[in-house]
Design goal:
By secondary structure, this protein is mainly alpha-helical. It has one domain. The protein is built from twelve helices and four strands, in the order ααββαααβααβααααα. The protein has a two-stranded antiparallel ribbon with strand order 1-2. It has a two-stranded parallel ribbon with strand order 3-4. α9 crosses α12 and α10 packs antiparallel against α11.
């Protein structure tokens, strides 16, 4: 009997024509095997988890016309989106004021382009001055600090709409890595514990992003490591069409569309492809066979 050719990567490994730095897929066979199910958001990720904190990440510079033109594109798109968004922001602001004591908007210092601090503007989703009693901490599932209305605003991403003004002021992009607080970066040691963390500051933070769409909010060092892998994949592959796909995917996610469907409809890379790409950025060899990846994981 003739041995059949090996199956290819399958349709979910295709990221569309805009992902320039992603490795090429092998040709598909006539009957490819069913792709493995996507791991849970915080499932162990050997490609990332085993890396030592001091691992050097070599991110190639962005090429093409889009990177230098992105600030202008961001401004025009944000201006267009802000017009229909203003009434929505106004209604949400009023509901926040009526449903819980405190201001409707929430302003906080975040680390922006190359670590420059700026004041982010969001609709308030937690109790006013809640960190006065809890201290600085990441929000977890079932966080009692989040108001009932705040849960809806977070799930629908409506709390992010005021960040359009940060985009118009040149402090943010529509699409990019999630901005973090300088005090959280320092307190958690993110720049030291997470390989490649500083490289995510090579671009402006975004209202939405490749990592924000696919992964849960940060809850520990490991979850930040996973998000950085997605962030650097985006930075290396950023393009106008990639940004449009992510903006439309964000809107689709607010309707309750599941992540597997979002990946299919908008050609978003699966985790194994992101992990493979991230490993091309690290010059270190894989860990010895049988060695536990958890010994490299920070607590």
């Amino acid at each position: 009997m003739t041995t059949p050719p090996p199956a290819g990567d399958g349709p979910h490994a295709v990221d569309g024509p805009t992902d320039r730095h992603a490795p090429e897929s092998t040709p598909m066979s006539a009957q490819p095997p069913t792709p493995a199910p996507e791991p849970a958001a915080h499932a162990p990720w050997p490609d990332i988890d085993w890396l030592a904190p001091e691992t050097v990440v070599e991110l190639p510079p962005a090429t093409g016309w889009y990177a230098p033109m992105k600030p202008s594109v961001d401004y025009l798109l944000a201006l267009a989106i802000a017009v229909p968004a203003l009434p929505v922001i106004g209604v949400c602001y009023a509901l926040v004021r009526l449903s819980s004591p405190g201001p409707g908007f929430y302003s906080q210092t975040r680390s922006g382009f190359h670590g420059r601090p700026y004041r982010i503007l969001k609709l308030r989703t937690m109790g006013h001055n809640c960190e006065a009693t809890t201290g600085i901490q990441w929000s977890q599932k079932g966080d009692m600090r989040v108001t009932k209305l705040g849960k809806f605003l977070r799930k629908s991403h409506l709390d992010e709409l005021p960040q359009l003004f940060n985009v118009l002021r040149g402090e943010m992009s529509l699409v990019g890595p999630r901005p973090e607080r300088p005090e959280v970066i320092a307190a958690k040691g993110l720049a030291k514990q997470v390989p490649g963390y500083a490289r995510r500051l090579d671009v402006k933070p975004g209202v939405t992003g490749f990592a924000q769409i696919q992964l849960e909010p940060d809850s520990n060092i490991t979850s930040v490591r996973h998000k950085v892998a997605y962030d650097l994949y985006y930075i290396a592959n950023q393009s106008f069409l990639f940004d449009v796909r992510l903006i439309v995917a964000t809107a689709a996610k607010t309707t309750g569309l599941s992540m597997p469907w979002l990946r299919r409809l908008f050609f978003l890379a699966r985790r194994d492809r992101v992990g493979h790409f991230f490993r091309t950025l690290t010059p270190q060899a894989p860990p010895p066979a049988g060695e536990s990846a958890t010994q490299f994981q920070p607590v």
